[in-house]
Known about the structure:
By secondary structure, the chain is α/β, with parallel strands linked by helices. The protein has helices spanning 2-8, 25-30, 32-41, 49-57, 73-86, 99-114, 141-149, and strands at 12-13, 16-17, 43-46, 63-65, 90-93, 118-121. β3, α4 (49-57) and β4 form a beta-alpha-beta unit. The mean pLDDT is 92.
Amino acid sequence: MPEQENANGKYWSYPFRKGLEIYNQDQLLLDPEAGQQMNAFGLVIVEGFFDVAKLVEAGCRNAGALMGAHITAEQIERLEWIQSRVGFLRVVLFLDRDEAGRKGSCQALDQLRQHNFDVGIFDWDGHQIPDLVKDPADMSVEQLQRLRMQGCF
Length: 153
């Protein structure tokens, strides 16, 4: 409903507020395989829950979502808290291939580096990804697995 979106934001339910949370944080903290992957590859940050779902389907369990293209100070605090529990060394921003995703990646890169995170950005242009593919959820499981094997995220 537009009234709810204007008053509380697009994604809101009790007790979840997108600007305060990292989607999939429960699995990042509790799933041993996610922990092993975070130690090996870092934490992959995407925009939405469908992106996380596709990455998990491809076997990449070390993914969390901002629920948008921009990171908040509260989400950075949440990432610091998650890092203090599972000890990942790196964050890889795998935001969408559109203007909002590119701007959000640059903004998040700067803010995360100010908090002493080692941060990388997925290079959409450095791989043979068709132009129709705009976000991780648009990719096939095989594409994501190939990119993981190449060390892209």
